Amino acid sequence: MKSQPRPRFLSFVSGLPTSPASSSPPQQLPMLSLPGSWRNNAVAALGEFVGTFLFLFFAFAGTQVANATAPAPDGRPDLVNLVFIALAFGASLTANVWAFYRVTGGLFNPAVTLALLLVGGLPAVRSVVVVVAQLLAGMAAAGVTSALFPGPLAVETTLGGGASVVQGLFIEVFLTAELVFVIIMLAAEKHKSTFLAPVAIGISFFLAELVGVYFTGGSLNPARSLGPAVVNGSFPAYFWIYWVGPLLGSLLASAFYSLLKYLRWRECNPGQDYNELEKMESEKMVEHAAGISSSNCGQGILDGP
Description:
Layout: E1 9-10, E2 17-18, H1 38-66, H2 79-100, H3 110-118, H4 124-148, H5 165-188, H6 197-216, H7 222-232, H8 241-262, H9 276-303
Antiparallel strand pairs: 1-2
Helix pairs in contact: 1-2, 1-4, 2-6, 3-4, 3-5, 3-8, 4-7, 5-6, 5-8
Subcellular location: Membrane
Family: Belongs to the MIP/aquaporin (TC 1.A.8) family.
Main location: membrane
């Protein structure tokens, strides 16, 4: 009996036809298919240094402006001040991620780099090179901000609002986890709206800063906290939470993504990127596949053992 051709389905990630026999996961970042080279790693390091510097410089500059005003006399949070700082960080991240995501991925954060390494989005050597560049850029951005603007550098991450060290730690954990998960799902997992991922990432960071600035300074990024601490020579006893918190948040987001992947999340609600034509084509292919399966089953019964 002549074998029937295998049906093809639309990929849940790209919307392109793919064979159901192919069980390999979709490629997340194109850099993984390229051979590692010192030139590519150097370009990644340069891009992450410049991108992280620009992101943090404009964020620090906005924070310096916001903190130039005296705090509220009754000790309550100055909401205008907090929104200004959150907006400075969110807008700066959006602009610079959009500029650099085609060069390096626009990571700008050791916690994000760790997450992409864990979920298979970055090679190990590239990750180490990028983290070093990010930490150096954080210190450079803080130094330039301190030199350009009058007054002491007022952009450090410190506990406030009565938050304890434990509370500060878990605030950093959960805010970082939310940011990292958004980055994984919108940037590392390729789909039709990946080019808009910088907008969603910036909004996510803006929301996290709205919550975190008053209580912890809203770090979510060891490079963001290290730079001002080095420039001011100020390392409070609880400074470790700005390393452990974001890294634990990164691990939490990566673990949840891995769980979703294990449970084959793409099969739960497929076709969200489809337009009407692709949806119709997909439905026809599914019906065709069901017909072939039914025909083969009936033929097997007639033929007997």
